[in-house]
Design brief:
This protein is an alpha+beta fold. The chain is built from 11 helices and 10 strands. A hairpin with a 5-residue loop joins strand 6 and strand 7. Helix 2 runs antiparallel to helix 4. The structure holds adenosine-5'-[phenylalaninyl-phosphate]. Adenosine-5'-[phenylalaninyl-phosphate] binds next to strand 5, strand 7, strand 9, strand 10 and helix 10.
Length: 350
Amino acid sequence: MNENIISLQNQLEADIAKVESLADLDSIRVGYLGKKGSITGLMKNMKSLSHEEKKTFGKEVNELKTAAAKIIEEKTAELKQKEIEKEISSMPQFDITTPVALDRGSYHPITLVQRQCEEIFRTMGFTVEDYSEVVTDYECFESLNIPKHHPARDMQDTYYLENGQLLKSQTSAAQNAILKKYGKNLIENGVPIRAIFPGRCFRNEATDACHENTFFQMEGVMVDKDISISNLIYFMKTMLSEVFQKDIKVRLRPGFFPFVEPGFELDISCLICGGDGCASCKHSGWLELCPCGMIHPEVLKEGGIDPEKYTGFAFGLGLTRLAMMKYGIKDIRDLNSGSLKALSQFTDDK
Ligand code: FA5
């Protein structure tokens, strides 16, 4: 082997044995293998060699190059591993058995009332359904007896997507799907439809102490033979007395919704001011909480259910307002504020 090559290889091995940092190793790499490096420079000596010598010399230089690259690569891995070990050993040690000192999170007040309502209705045989926030015009309006240009749409302006879908303005948007989902079991097996579906609703409207543009409702439907307003009132009363664990003053007055007939507004006496009137109840002493009514025959028909044989009720509970009343929250906007100080007060009541 060429003497120059042997001495360069020995030199490289000695340099590599001494190096202690990745930065120094990189300098060595450039010094040997870089464009102006000593191994690359060996090629310049080839000019003076014969054809046969060039072949042997070239082969030996290439072998040295490969060996140098390999030894540098191995040293790089060794030094990287050493750096990782050094970093780990310099990290603060901790005892995994020490109790965590962080504060625990808490449930949002709306989640708390929603869960409570779900539990109440589950014990009365209702299923709890989940439903999309993005719906079609058919789901939110047309299937509910609200054709295009019906004035009832003015009360529920919402946010539209470019493809014509919309963010649901009411949980009633799920009614048609629920009737279709459980209608077969009702008709063929006589199993009543009993379902609730909580969900986030959106309306393009100005906010105040009792109105938000994003809020929660919980819809409920029951359909069977001979369902009447008495059944509706029973379920509403049971739900309210369970949620508040005390007698609440309630009033039922006529209300118009194209998807129920007759329709009612169920108001509760404002628990913030005790009925005297305040900003939370628009100074009326009453808070609109749960509109309801008997499902309109056209809506039943659209859901595949014969209104001559079956009747049913539906309600649309304002969950956000229920949370306000239950926890004495004066301004609905606090619930969407993200203020942990305000919201974390309700931890205990799971
Ligand atoms: C409806 O949304 C009907 N879908 C309810 C219904 C269902 C009627 C089934 C009949 C049968 P309304 O727009 O009134 O109705 O809203 C229902 C409840 O949601 C209100 O009573 C109120 O508690 C709550 N709500 C409505 N708008 C807002 C808002 N902007 N911010 C907070 N809560 C609201």
